[in-house]
Amino acid sequence: MDVVGEVCRESGGDGIEIVALKGEHDLGSLPLVRDALEAATGGDDALIIDLSPATFIDSSILGAVIDARRHASEAGRGFAVACEGACEPVRRVLEVTGLLEELPVHPTREAALEALAGAST
Amino acid sequence: MAAAPSTELWLGLAAKPENLALVRQALSGFADGMSIPEGPLADLKQIATEACMNAVVHAYPGRDDGRIDVSAVAKAGEVELRVRDWGIGFHPRPASKDGSLRLGLPLIASVVDSFGIESPDGGGTALVARVRTNGAVEEATVEMPAAPKEAEILIDAGASAKPVIARVIAMAATRAGFSLDRMSDGVLVGDAIAAARPDDFADGRVGIEIKECGPNLCLQVGPFQSGGATRLLDQMELPGLGVSVSKLADSVDVVESDDGEFLAIEIASGTAATI
Predict the structure, then answer these.
(1) Is residue A1 part of a domain?
(2) Which of A63, A89, A97 is nearest residue B98 as measured by Cβ atoms?
(3) CATH code: domain of residue A54
(4) Does the beta carbon of A100 lie under 8 angstroms from any beta carbon of chain B?
(5) Which phi-psi region, left, alpha or beta, contains residue B271 (left: φ > 0; alpha: ψ -120 to 50)?
(6) What integer pLDDT is reported at residue B102 of this predicted model?
(7) HSE (side-chain half, CA atoms, 13 Å) at B3
(8) Does A30 sit within 8 Å of B20, measured CB to CB?
(9) What average pLDDT does range B68-76 have in this prediction?
(10) What DSSP character marks residue B99?
(11) pLDDT at B148
């Protein structure tokens, strides 16, 4: 059981940075998540937040995702969210809050990479 | 005869962000014991987390000694979840910087069958939510202990207590930086407690108070009927292992107090001291 949330920063190549949330994330891991997102949005790269390995997120994490999107938008950089089918509880949270429609959510990380690569060409 | 399923869980916790995961682990254990499906369990965890987060962030401004009580009561086809604090009370607030209030209560409203916010006697705020489980369980009533101390669990004794106690101890041990083998010892100790006879406890329910004592975990188990703690200690041979709990724990003592008889168990983290 992934009860301790982890945050991984990876390069997606071609000016894309990926922040992946693994396990459960809430107010307890929010500082970790915010630090990673702020670091990832501090440069010129586009950002993908990959929620596929996440097994739980609460509204504080949704707030951090929304803020990251706003920062990316204000800086004119690309932004996408990946959420594969396995992260059903997370997808449901996005759905009931309306963020599944509001955010650019893609069914896989690869689809998110393709969307950002397509947007930059 | 198989033990009757537990219908009630109670937790008393410090109002701190790191305890939200502990609440979810306890609810997962409760759901395991009650055969509650994944969907309703996910809703219960989401509601409890949002309600506890609200209490952590807003109930105790300028204080670090706040408390939260969480109780889950399984009734016919539903679980009633109650999250209560003793803070400043509920005040509608503008959206906060972290976005939690913009989304927290709407998120709760979107996943529950009904919920309400109360101002209970004694102050603070209580959120009560009901989630359908599609299971038939016995009617039960909740009784809220009045004076919460450290992190506490209160659950009906019997087989269904085992997953709750195991998950909470494992989570507390993880947080305290326990080595894997010492965490396993802690879970085995929890299993042995869960296997105790219900009538050895004062009211048929297992109460465990969990504290971090430096790098170690201290468990206070009880209250017991007179002589119940000693009987449990004698019975605490771990099935199939031939090892007693007193060998897994670093200390086990029977303690008498005005509230009754308790077992005080300390488990060392196993973390090597740094020089």
Answers:
(1) no
(2) A63
(3) 3.30.750.24
(4) no
(5) beta
(6) 57
(7) 20
(8) no
(9) 90
(10) S
(11) 39
Check CB contact under 8 Å for A24 and B24.
yes
Does residue A107 belong to the interface with chain B, where contact is any CB pair within 8 Å?
no
The answer to whether A56 and A28 have CB atoms below 8 angstroms apart is: no
Task: Kindly indicate the confidence band of residue B274, based on its pLDDT and cuts at 50, 70 and 90.
Answer: very low
Phi, psi for B47 (deg, rounded to 5) = -65, -45
Q: Which two tokens stand for residue A107?
A: 């069914």
Provide the pLDDT for residue B50. 92
Tokens read off for A66:
């929304």
Residues B128 and B223 in one domain: no
Which residue segment(s) compose the domain that A19 sits in? 6-120
Using the beta-carbon criterion (under 8 Å), do A56 and B24 form an inter-chain contact? Answer: yes
Whole domain around residue B22: which residue ranges?
1-148
pLDDT tens digits, B228-266: 888 887 777 655 555 577 777 888 888 998 888 998 999
B21·A3 Cβ contact <8 A: yes
Tell me which amino acid residue B10 is. Answer: W
The answer on B113 and B3 residing in a single domain is yes
In contact, B225 and B199? CB cutoff 8 Å: yes
The total domain count for chain B is 2
Alpha-carbon distance A91 to nearest alpha carbon in chain B (angstroms): 12
Q: Which of residues 6-65 of A touch B (CB under 8 A)?
A: 24, 26-28, 30, 56, 58-60, 62-64
B/e letters for A21-34, b = 16+ CB within 10 Å, e = fewer, are bbbbbbbbbbeebb
Q: DSSP characters for A64-115?
A: HHHHHHHHHHHTT--EEEE--TT-HHHHHHHHHTTHHHHS-EESSHHHHHHH
pLDDT at B4: 44
Q: Which of B148, B172, B193 is the last residue of a domain?
A: B148
Which value does ipTM take for this structure?
A: 0.89
Q: At B161, which CATH number?
A: 3.30.565.10
- Residues in B touching A97 (Cβ below 8 Å): 103, 106-107, 110
> Cα separation of B41 and B128, whole Å?
16
Asked if residue A48 has pLDDT above 90, the reply is: yes
